Amino acid sequence: MQTQILERMESEVRTYSRSFPTVFTTAKGARLTDEAGREYIDFLAGAGTLNYGHNHPKLQEALVDYITSDGITHGLDMWSQAKRDYLETLEKVILKPRGLDYKVHLPGPTGTNAVEAAIRLARVAKGRHNIVTFTNGFHGVTMGALATTGNRKFREATGGIPTQGASFMPFDGYLGEGNDTLDYFEKLLGDKSGGLDLPAGVIIETVQGEGGINPAGLDWLKRLESICRAHDILLIVDDIQAGCGRTGKFFSFEHAGIVPDIVTNSKSLSAYGLPFAHVLMRPELDKWKPGQYNGTFRGFNMAFVTAAAAFKHFWSDDKLERDVQRKGRIVEERFTKIAAWLTERGHEASERGRGLMRGIDVRKGEIADKITAKAFENGLIIETAGQDGQVIKCLCPLVISDEDLLEGLDILERSVEEALA
Ligand code: PLP
What we know:
- The protein is α/β, with parallel strands linked by helices.
- Helix content is 37%, strand content 15%.
- It has helices at 4-9, 16-19, 45-48, 57-68, 81-95, 111-126, 143-146, 152-155, 182-189, 218-230, 301-314, 319-344, 365-377, 402-419; strands at residues 24-28, 31-34, 39-42, 103-105, 131-134, 166-169, 201-204, 207-208, 214-215, 234-238, 262-265, 278-281, 350-354, 357-361, 380-381, 383-385, 391-394.
- It has a seven-stranded mixed sheet, with helices on both faces. Strands 1-2-3-15 form a four-stranded mixed sheet.
- The protein is globular and about 55 Å long.
- Pyridoxal-5'-phosphate is lined by residues 47, 110-112, 115, 138-140, 205, 209-210, 238, 240-241, 266.
């Protein structure tokens, strides 16, 4: 396989091609094929970007029809039929049935663009600078979002420029069992001498993805919401990884019955792997003046088309939600078994997650790396997360067939045994 040009010209910053050093050609559903004709089951799915798998035929058809009928591809943030259809479908299929009333800001197409816009909006709306974020949170790597991201590897890569405008609080479980970490946050808010500038907003992932698949307790999230309300702080749920059905509900916060003031979505929002993000905000928070936050790529018409097609196809009833919860239980069961196998052999491990966002914490990055490298050899693409990369994380497509899911889990189980034999 010819990789010289790739190794020579692409910056050292590349990451996933190091874990999966092959040249991919095609992909369908939950399977990728490389140049040598080898097939891999995909439990990474673009780090949660391909919830509906690769090249889903319904979405592909909608996209191809749009392109071949000369639909608008780029139009800055001008109105298009595709945008209108997207907003109509979002309101009708996703927001209204959930009793949600949000306006939509279309920022640049990546997750970090959406986070930048969301925290800027909170600051503009409240006239305060501080954003509270949580240990192990990951919200992107541009300067504003990076300030709310915990991981030192990214924080140290600013060339020495300090990040600003965020305060870290302990995430749920950070201080061990029996410790409600919100006691500390609430105490600081009530302490005029506690050193915490009253935040404009709190940003949270209900299940931390890059931070190692850490689900916040549902009661904890409810309490966080009421603390925010009591102190006039905006609650921002970053649903970039956990949203779009990943946890078994369209929005991950639905499990807790909370209603954030601001929500960010990206990754699987386009449903097809096209770059796309939006920020949802309570209507009264829309304090933007025309053009006050701009960008060349604000809303991507092709992504409007595939996103709207996915809303119509997958979200008009609760079939997918129920299926994700069912498959989540299959993964949970198998991950629990694998974790027990590891623990019995002296490698302490445990499983955790919500819906199809699940991980096995093997405590050590080297062990997780050994297992995922072996899995790749055996035909499974699966990555790690967490501060040391110690959590093997399953983000398989939500629409994966039971056959592919079980085959992927079998490969993982075999790879664990081979890696640690
Ligand atoms: N927020 C969350 C929760 C994420 O998981 C990510 C990416 O993994 C981001 C923000 C940043 O998204 P992007 O990589 O598209 O900038």
